[in-house]
Specification:
It is found in: Cell inner membrane. InterPro entries: PDZ_6, T2SS_GspC_N. This is Type II secretion system protein GspC N-terminal domain-containing protein. It contains 8 helices and 14 strands. It is elongated and about 60 Å long.
């Protein structure tokens, strides 16, 4: 499962979120990964109805995901009516055990959205299949393949000047896969890589991690700020929620929580207790 991204609940509890590979995914994906949310009411007040489902938006998670651009399949004919097609880029893939349940994050004319097999990208473009490392679409009746960008090998199709990026229209006309030549660091993909990634960020600048997510140290926990990462909402949290503990350990002191990061990552599971008004929500995340 490729995540671009995903969301971290800062410092000592970042492993609970990043390692889960499901914190910033939509609910159906979180449950398929073994992520559960248990709600319990306090004795003084009845539990409120669950909040309405929120619109899916994976911008936060995909800050870590690999970026891609549309590329035609080998059998796409040159001279396709490319002018009628918008610019399309593959941003990330949430791969499920059953391929028809997999979800792709695709940007169409710079507007990102989540798509499954059978979903239309536009009036003339439809998603046909979402695989682990690519997406098949049909545009104006022609099959095309969306790939993540990669550095081409020496025997790739046509020779091109170093550093040149080719538009979707050029790819369609040439019917070849053209890679993005821009240099970039390979994003983390495995649980261990995500844990290491966030460990480095936490050690380098803990406050920047807090600001990036939208968390405020509140002494008795971490409060979700009014301005927060979109992944927070996708995880089911709201502005004003207070993350009180992780694996039974109280949080709220950045220095102490930073030292607990590795212990949480090594435990294999993270259990977050969140206070919302008079209600207590418990989120449980597998880390392996």
């Amino acid at each position: 499962m490729k995540i671009d991204m995903w969301f971290a609940v800062q410092l000592g509890i970042a492993a609970a979120v990043i390692g889960s590979l499901g914190w910033a995914a939509p609910p159906v994906i979180r449950h398929s990964l073994g992520v559960v949310m248990v709600e319990k009411s306090t004795p003084t007040q009845e539990a409120e109805p669950e909040a309405e489902a929120r619109a899916l938006d994976l911008s936060a998670v995909l800050a870590l995901a690999p970026f891609g651009r549309a590329a035609p399949s080998a059998d796409a004919a040159a001279g396709a009516p490319a002018a009628a097609l918008p610019d399309i880029a593959l941003k990330g893939i949430l791969s499920a055990a059953q391929e028809d349940a997999s979800i792709a994050l695709i940007a169409v004319a710079d507007v990102q959205g989540l798509y499954r097999a059978g979903d239309p990208l536009s009036d003339t473009i439809q998603v046909e299949a979402v695989a682990r490392d690519h997406v098949m679409i049909r545009a104006n009746g022609r099959p095309l393949q969306l790939l993540f960008d990669e550095v081409p090998s020496a025997d790739d199709g046509e020779a091109r000047d170093e550093g040149t990026e080719v538009s979707l229209n050029d790819r369609l006309r040439a019917a070849t896969v053209v890679a993005d030549r821009s240099a970039r660091t390979s994003p983390p993909e495995t649980t261990a890589e995500y844990i290491s990634y966030w460990r480095r960020k936490i050690r380098k600048n803990p406050q920047a991690v807090l600001d990036q997510i939208g968390l405020e140290a509140a002494g008795d926990g971490y409060r979700i700020a009014q301005k927060h990462d979109r992944g927070v909402r996708l995880a089911g949290l709201q502005a004003g929620d207070l993350v009180r503990s992780v694996n039974g350990r109280a949080v709220g002191n950045p220095d102490e929580d930073r030292r607990a990061y590795d212990a949480i990552a090594a435990s294999g599971q993270a259990r977050l207790e969140v206070q919302r008004g008079d209600k207590i929500l418990t989120f449980s995340f597998p880390l392996r």
